[in-house]
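Q: Give me the 3D complex with tryptophan.
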Amino acid sequence: MENKGKKIIFSGIQPSGNLHLGNYIGAINQWVVMQEESSEKELIFCVVDLHAITVYQSSAVLKEKILEVAALYLACGIDPKKSKIFVQSENPDHSYLAWIFDCLTPMGWMNRMTQFKDKSAKQKESTSVGLFNYPALMAADILLYDTDYVPVGEDQTQHVELTCDIAARFNRLYGENFKLPKTIIDRKAARIMSLQNPLTKMSKSDENQDGVINLLDAKDDIAKKIKKAVTDSGREIVYEQDKPAISNLLVIYSKLSGREINSIEEEYRLKSYADFKNDLAELMVDVLSPVQDKYREIRQDAGYLGKVLDEGREFAVKKSSVKVANVRRAMGLGRI
Ligand code: AMP
Ligand code: TRP
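A: Here is the predicted complex, encoded as structure tokens.
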């Protein structure tokens, strides 16, 4: 389990639907901050396509989305000289270890997962066994690399806790093989809400896309969506529990500008919602335009993106194959 004292950071996003501001503020931006901190660490970011197929994906769309997500990681500031990026399905060790974890995980543990309850309620009869087992695959992603920290949004904390439970059970039954990871959450950024319903989180699968700012949305659409964003009763621009809509917009403003919420409240004390929304739209376009330009540049250079993903895969396979060999030995699998 040694890695020369380097802390290992692992996270991933599914290539299903469009990446949105919640993914950016809640996840990718945190990754970039961690990448730029000076301490010694190994950062690994995965495009989790095997998770995406827990609900049906058309193959042509999936193929495109995998490259889109990888290119967006780079466009948002993930630097392949400092971090590794790879595609989950290109390393078969993930599904191999996931099967082992399926066999080790009591149904009762999986039954507690709130994300499964929400997602399966939407899928009804077509809910797949894969959607139910999904956290075992996520545990495999994390545990294959001796991960110390998993930076994610709030909806994933329960899955990381389950990952620790699975690791501890394995270690108890077969000896110490897995490190128990910790979740890293930016409390203020962990739950960016829909602009149309501030009581539900901004999500790829939201039917009302007016509530979702996609990272690749055109400038005009961004401005329109912000203009249409619901607000609360009253006219004060303040962060308060009974003002979920304006509080969400303030969090977004704060995260995109790097300013404290109270300094933003102070600036808008005598101004209107319309002023605030205009400025927020402008700020968002200022932040997202360079990401979009960089994204287009990367997508035009298929060779570069391919090279980054090849290097990421080689790194991942090299590391995970050692772990899988140890697991097989510990469990008595095959003739190893
Ligand atoms: P997903 O879109 O479900 O693949 O999520 C990818 C990452 O983005 C995970 O770390 C999520 O926790 C995070 N994330 C997704 N939606 C939001 C949101 N609305 N607010 C904050 N983080 C989010
Ligand atoms: N389940 C995560 C999500 O939907 C994505 C994911 C898969 C992930 N494997 C992971 C996140 C490992 C962090 C670490 O957002």
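A quick observation: The pocket of adenosine monophosphate (ligand 1) is lined by residues 13-14, 22-23, 26-27, 152-153, 155-156, 190-192, 201-204 (CB under 6 Å).
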